[in-house]
Amino acid sequence: MTQQTKHISRRHALAGGASIIAAPALIGKASAAEKVTWKVQSHWPKASSSFGDSLQLIADELKANTEGQFELQLFGAGEFAKGGEIFNIVRKGVVEMGTISPGYIQGEAVTAGLALGVPGTFREPWEFSHFLKNMGFEALFNEDLAKYGVVSRAEKIYPTELVVSKPVNSLEDFSTLKLRSSGSYLKFLEAAGASTQSIAGPELYSSLASGVVDGAHWGAAQGAMSMSLWEVAKFHMKPTMGLAMDTLIMNQGAVDALSPDLRAEFFNLVDLRFWKRTTEYQYKEKLALSKGQAEMSVAVSQFPDDVLKKFSEASGAILKEESAKGGNAAKATDMLVGFLKGMGYI
User: Fold this and answer.
1) What does the alpha-carbon distance between residue 273 and residue 156 come to, in Å, rounded to a whole number?
2) CA pair distance 320, 326, nearest whole angstrom
3) What angle do CA 197, 201, 205 make, to 5 degrees?
4) What residues contact 160, with CB distance under 8 A and at least 6 apart?
5) What pLDDT shows up at residue 137?
6) Which letter, b or e, does each residue of 183-209 get, where b requires 16 or more Cβ atoms within 10 Å of its Cβ?
7) HEC profile for 122-133?
8) CA dihedral sign of residues 149, 157, 317, 177
């Protein structure tokens, strides 16, 4: 273990050890003259539910908890940089913090594909949360990011569900679809015959409306509603394809520059917010889908059995590919397969 990794592990213990207990008022110990403002580039458009329900809430609570000493200046998707560029501007210190999907950094971290979430593995949000926080996957992910001077904390676990503009009643129907996707979900969907491409969030609605793609996933029900995808893609597909993770990334130098009190306040807040947000998200998913059905004529449709069979085959192949990356990816894949066997899923 490198000295830098040890440093991250110690800080993870400090920030995460009391993550489900509200932190005491620490600000009185901090220097009254200290004032910190971090620029935060999000991959979420400001219209996205996660921008307001998560990132804005974190900013508001951090400012209140530190009596204005620590503020976050928020930028919506594309305002400062686009999704695929966010990791680099955080790494270089152009901005101190960002939000990303791990799917954006699979070339940088061998565990990023597993952090994104392997489709067809976890079935409930608590399972991925347990793997991440209690089984040690987040620590492995941070080991991979340490060489870039980047620190990660999961923002939430959320379901990934596809919306499409035409009915899917067979494998043949599915094979005609053009779909927006990312990460390992590209391979997952391609295994059932669909063609796929990556499209940035701000361009997603127009791509669906113009027929550039026939379907997409942006989270699940909340994402479809907040991004207006149901206006042009009325078929919401079940079951959930998989559980995914969004993450907050911070520049290591910016973290180290914080006073111990502000650093502890920040990490206590984001770690506590992970548990609250993940639980809240599942509740809001139910509300959003019910509203879509009642008010927007959204049709909840099931993937045909022959499509699900292809998905299952793809999931096993993706796990083998993740393991073959070696290093922490092999360790984490072994952990995941062991968990799935213990649950009776494989």
Assistant:
1) 8
2) 11
3) 85
4) 117, 119, 185, 217, 219, 220, 240, 241, 242, 243, 244
5) 98
6) bbbbbbbbbbebebeebebbebbebbe
7) CCCHHHHHHHHH
8) negative
* Span 195-225, pLDDT tens digits: 999 888 788 999 999 999 999 998 899 989 9
Tokens of 190: 């391609």
Question: CA 66 to CA 93: how far, in whole Å?
Answer: 23
Q: What are phi and psi of 302, to 5 degrees?
A: -100, 140
Nearest to 201 by CA among 231, 221, 232, 180: 180
- Checking if the pLDDT of 125 tops 80, the result is yes
Tokens of 330: 């092999």
Residue with tokens 């394809």: 241
d(CA 144, CA 343): 28
Give the predicted TM-score (pTM) of the model: 0.81
Number of Cβ within 10 Å of residue 32's Cβ equals 9
